[in-house]
């Protein structure tokens, strides 16, 4: 079934809907016979169900309230408190900008497609933004076993949903201040944002060197995102104490033992994740129909289900890549880590020190 929304497929040989074999026989359709969309969409639906149940259970639980400020001798310096609020304001503005231009505008204003016909609907960028927000739910996995990611209790928060996700250790850390303001934007600008900006910056390189491979472009992207993440995260940690890495793998940690210790593998994982998103976007730009690899095969579904299948396929990609490329290695290296940072009392979990690490 054709991808475009035209009532009848165009029959001109120049239309991207039609390709020909060596005998001149025409085939209508945009996606190859190999269907990836169904599998990715299935995971997207499954992750959406897991996320909704976690949030619903969290909303009605005793965990749904601002995380307590644990009694202790430490107080957040006023200048750091101001920087924390500044991080929240900037993050909110960035998220609003992405949501407006990538989601709202395409739904309100028809945008030209690969065939030059303008239609309303989400582009891959808009699906990346929504997928990033869906993937943000997986942030609860960070402390599912041990307290390897500390949160400042002064964050705008309502606690955390970690106890309602799979694999949470009984008696493990909970009741900490998962940020509702600067947390979600990170899953957008480190993924969708990097992909959008990278593709824009890489276009001049492609024009200058037409034969340059996507792999070389991704290496350039990876290096750029590594530097971007290192500067952004190090600045946020040092200036605002919005979060910290209390337990890290020492050989790959800078400033080990300090509150501001920074594991290099954080930037490595984020850069790799951003490169995955960039690759998807590059492939969609190269595709004559504007499809990313995970959307191919959506046209095997009935027409009313095609748009949802494409959307859930991208959500599935966003969630699975975030879990596999970021959360799994971060958890593993944190659990085996030996470098314990100095945590001020305003970064301790509300569930108590005894919940931070298994006995």
TrEMBL record:
The chain crosses the membrane at residues 40-60, 81-101, 186-205, 217-244, 311-333. Residues 1-22 are annotated as: Disordered. Coiled coil: none annotated. Keywords: Membrane, Transmembrane, Transmembrane helix. Residues 1-11 have a biased composition (Acidic residues). It comes from the Eukaryota. Pfam families: AveC_like. Residues 12-22 have a biased composition (Polar residues). InterPro entries: AveC-like. This is Uncharacterized protein. It comes from Penicillium malachiteum. The lineage of its organism: Eukaryota, Fungi, Dikarya, Ascomycota, Pezizomycotina.
